[in-house]
Structures are given as structure tokens and as C-alpha cells.
Write a structure and sequence with these properties.
The longest helix has 14 residues. The protein contains five helices and 33 strands. It is globular, with a radius of gyration of 24 Å. Strands 1, 2, 3, 4, 5, 6, 7, 8, 9 and 10 form a ten-stranded mixed sheet that branches. A seven-stranded mixed sheet has the order 12-11-18-17-16-15-13, with no helix packed on it. A six-stranded antiparallel sheet has the order 25-26-27-28-32-31, with no helix packed on it. It has three domains: 173 residues, Collagenase (Catalytic Domain), CATH 3.40.390; 164 residues, no CATH class; 117 residues, Trefoil (Acidic Fibroblast Growth Factor, subunit A) (Trefoil). By secondary structure, the protein is mainly beta.
């Protein structure tokens, strides 16, 4: 578990990695997942030699950053997740606890602050919290950052000058998200890309509270339902509704394009201000690059670095980029959607999947009969070892789909070939290492040419799958 810290400036975020910590440097001034409520203990602490502001006005300011109706993290993540995640105060207690004194002199020692705050809370009978936010006076502590968060984890630290953007950013780290940077690439391509700093596509980049989460971040958190995602779409024209449109707005929001055979991805989404938490985002069709299915960290592509400002990162109508045989072009944009054309064949078309022993995922006997077991076998060039990802997340071979038999979820359920219907038991994601079913289990083999089943994901050798041509 890492700790990530950040410094918020008036318009942008700067990042610093130091001794294993990533820093906010100080302020100059899937249907959605099952709904989860995280109980958040927000605590104002005093050091033995330094006190935080104890006024009612300051407590109200901190409370509003977490639980208010305006720029609060509760609202931000509730809207970003379409209600899948809610932050709430501890029941029966004030929304902001303290100020209470912890047994240490002022120092920028996050680990000791955490320990001493937990000891103090235990002594006062404060329990039952899922996350802990520690607010402390920084005059003598002299921390050089504006916020710190475990990544992933459950603790954030905020010096007394913290902001609503900083609070949301650090809670994003707790959820496993890293900083989001941007790149500029050779014109019309995704080649020869160079770092371009932080831009406004997410609160994890330079966008602050006015930017919702990016498409890869939403994918990482499981907040893009299957109906809103097109995975490895066939060549054609697609209409995207704004990424953060209200949940009631139907339509595709994300295109996920394979990039090579190692699990890399290009995500395509349309950002438009005036949609829930997107109120100050860089508008337009945005492209993000991810490595090996690691959606918690990505890079925003600026396809036209010679034009506009730092948030002018959209692929403009009439513009296109080509990468690995596939071209993405923005045809048109309106207030309610963007039309995007995908042409060519991405290099992530029909592929073989090899297990840790070098055997390939195989339809037994090459039989396309419904119910045929899927096993591992010595790799060859036959069609019964070729699997093509489709826009509905299915993997197709011999005109049928990789299927968890009977839509069951129990460990040991066989995996078979079955006519395609696109339900969760036929939806699969390859993250560069595992093949995960939308039921939450991993494709597993016991080796030696055995039939495949689903089991709880545990990272063992029988769940490792390498995709290749």
C-alpha cells in the first residue's frame, strides 16, 4: 500500500514522488456495482503544541467538503458512481469530530499521526468507521503537501488549508486511483508520445472538483455498466452520450479498443460540461491510453497540442488518429452526444489464450455444438483456438461464445461453448494476466490439458492467461 500526496495550485496539479510517497505539494493559497456506504470519520486534531481552528465556521467548512450539498466528496462520488458508492458520517455522532488532542508534538509524520489518532479515537469509544480523514494544524508541522492519501487504503491526511478538490483527490487515492497525466503524440498518431503534465480530465489530474472521473478510472472502479460500454467494437460509426450524463440517459459512453496483444487499451469517451459533476472539464472526444488493463492509471492524449489551452484535449470533428491498424475519427459533436467512426482492424482481433503451461484455450474436438467443454490443449492454428472479443465483452470462437454453464457462480462451474446471448456469464475481461467473468470469478485450469472452470480469483498459476496471435 502506497501513500500518495499532492499539491494543489490555482489551476493545476503538480506531482512529486519522494521516498515511496507521491505528493499534493501545499496550496499556494458491469450494471453498477452493488451500492456501498463507507462510514467516514472526519477528525480535527490538535498537537500538544499546536491547535487547529475550533470555530463553528471552520467545522462547517470542513463538514461541507465531505457531506454538504455543494462541492462535497459525498456528492462527487455518489454522482460519479451513479449511486454505487456513498460516503456518510458515523451514525449518532457529529459529522466532524474534535478538535481532540493527540499525544504528539507537531511534526509532518503521517504514520505517527495515524497511530495516535486511532489511539485517541479508541479511548473515546469511536469505532465503526471504514475510512479516516485526519485534519491537523500545519503551522508547526510544516508539511510540504496539500493532502495525502493511502493508495489504496482507508486513511487521508489534510493540513488545515485543505480544499474540496484536495479531499476528493485523496479519497480517489484510497479507492486505488493514481495520478492522471497527459501526453502529446506525433500528429495523427499515438506514436512518439511525450509527457505533457496534468490536464483537466479528472480530479486525479489537473481538473479539480469540476472534472468528473475519466473513462479508465470509471472502468477500474466497475462504474461503467455493460450497456454503456463497447469493448473491441467492430469497424463502424458509434454515438457516445456524455460520460457523466445522468444515469437516466441511455446509450454507449465508452469505447474500449485493444492496442496490441499485451492488454493495452485505448478508451474513447465524450466529455461535455453541464452533466452532473462535469462542470469545468476539457470538452470533446477524449482518448486515454492504459497499459495491460491497468485502468487505475492512464494517460490522456492531447491530439492537437499546437491548438488551444491545457484543457483543449478533445479530438475535434474531422480529426482522426491511427494506431496499430485502427483509426478513430470524430465525425460530429452536439450538446447531447458525439459521433465517432472506427475503421480498420485493431491488432487485438482473433487471438489465442495460453495458460501458464503454454497450452491454449481450446474448444474440445473443434465441435461447435452447444455445451461443448472448453479446455486447454497443445497450441495450434485451428479455428477452435481462436477467440475474437466483441463489443458486448463476449469471446467468440466457431460462431459461439465462451460461457459459464447455467449462469452459475459457484467455484468449479464448467466453462463451455454456447450460442451467444451477451449476458454476464458470457462477458469476459482480460486484464493482461487473468480472464475475469462478469460474474466476478476467474477462468481457471488445473493444468495438463484439463477442462476449464471458474473459481474465485486468487492469482495462482491456473488463472494466468497470456493473449497472443
Amino acid at each position: 500500500m502506497e501513500q500518495r500526496r499532492c499539491r494543489w495550485r490555482a489551476a493545476a496539479l503538480a506531482a512529486l514522488v519522494l521516498a515511496g510517497l507521491t505528493a499534493v505539494p501545499a496550496t499556494a493559497d458491469a450494471a453498477p456495482a452493488q451500492a456501498v456506504t463507507k462510514r467516514l470519520a472526519v477528525v480535527l486534531v490538535d498537537f500538544t503544541d499546536s491547535r487547529i481552528d475550533a470555530s463553528a465556521a471552520y467545522r462547517a467548512k470542513v463538514r461541507d467538503m465531505y457531506f454538504g450539498d455543494g462541492q462535497s466528496s459525498a456528492r462527487y462520488f455518489r454522482e460519479a458512481s451513479d449511486g454505487a458508492l456513498t460516503f456518510a458520517p458515523l451514525p449518532g455522532r457529529p459529522e466532524v469530530l474534535g478538535p481532540w488532542t493527540i499525544d504528539m508534538a507537531a511534526a509532518c509524520d503521517s504514520g505517527r499521526m495515524n497511530t495516535k489518532t486511532r489511539e485517541m479515537l479508541a479511548a473515546r469509544g469511536v469505532t465503526g468507521y471504514d475510512s479516516l480523514a485526519i485534519w491537523f494544524p500545519n503551522r508547526l508541522a510544516k508539511c510540504g503537501w496539500g493532502g495525502l492519501g493511502q493508495q489504496p487504503g482507508s486513511v487521508t491526511w489534510m493540513p488545515d488549508g485543505g480544499s474540496a478538490s484536495g479531499v476528493a483527490h485523496e479519497l480517489g487515492h484510497n479507492l486505488g486511483l493514481r495520478h492522471l497525466s497527459s501526453v502529446t503524440c506525433a500528429a495523427g498518431t499515438l506514436s512518439n508520445c511525450a509527457d505533457a503534465g496534468y490536464r483537466g480530465s479528472s480530479v486525479m489530474g489537473g481538473g479539480g472538483y469540476a472534472s468528473g472521473l475519466s473513462a479508465p478510472e470509471l472502468l477500474h472502479l466497475g462504474w461503467v455498466p455493460p450497456a454503456q460500454l463497447r469493448t473491441a467494437p467492430a469497424p463502424g460509426t458509434y454515438t457516445l452520450v456524455p460520460l457523466h450524463a445522468p444515469a437516466s440517459v441511455a446509450g454507449a459512453r465508452v469505447l474500449e479498443l485493444p492496442r496490441g496483444t499485451g492488454g493495452d487499451r485505448i478508451t474513447v469517451a465524450y466529455r461535455k460540461n453541464g452533466n452532473t459533476i462535469d462542470t469545468g472539464v476539457g470538452e470533446g472526444v477524449q482518448l486515454h491510453l492504459t497499459k495491460r488493463g491497468a485502468f487505475h492509471t492512464s494517460q490522456l492524449v492531447d491530439p492537437s497540442p499546437a491548438t488551444g489551452g491545457k484543457d483543449d484535449t478533445g479530438l475535434k470533428p474531422g480529426s482522426r488518429v491511427t494506431d496499430g491498424g485502427v483509426t478513430v475519427e470524430t465525425v460530429s459533436v452536439t450538446a447531447t452526444g458525439a459521433t465517432v467512426r472506427v475503421t480498420g482492424q485493431a491488432s487485438g482481433g482473433a487471438q489465442r489464450y495460453a495458460d501458464a503451461e503454454g497450452r491454449c484455450l481450446d474448444v474440445a474436438g473443434g465441435a461447435a455444438t452447444a455445451g461443448t467443454r472448453v479446455l486447454t490443449w497443445a497450441c495450434h492454428d485451428g479455428a477452435n483456438q481462436r477467440w475474437t472479443p466483441s463489443g458486448d465483452r463476449t469471446l467468440r470462437s466457431l460462431g459461439a461464445c465462451l460461457d459459464v454453464r447455467g449462469n452459475a457462480t459457484a467455484d468449479g462451474t464448467p466453462v463451455i461453448l454456447w450460442p451467444c446471448h451477451g449476458q454476464p456469464n458470457q462477458q469476459w475481461t482480460h486484464d493482461g494476466t487473468t480472464l475475469r467473468s462478469a460474474t466476478g470469478k476467474c477462468l481457471t485450469t488445473t493444468g495438463g490439458g484439463s477442462a476449464t472452470v471458474i473459481r474465485t480469483c486468487d492469482g495462482t498459476a491456473g488463472q494466468r492467461w497470456t493473449r497472443g496471435a
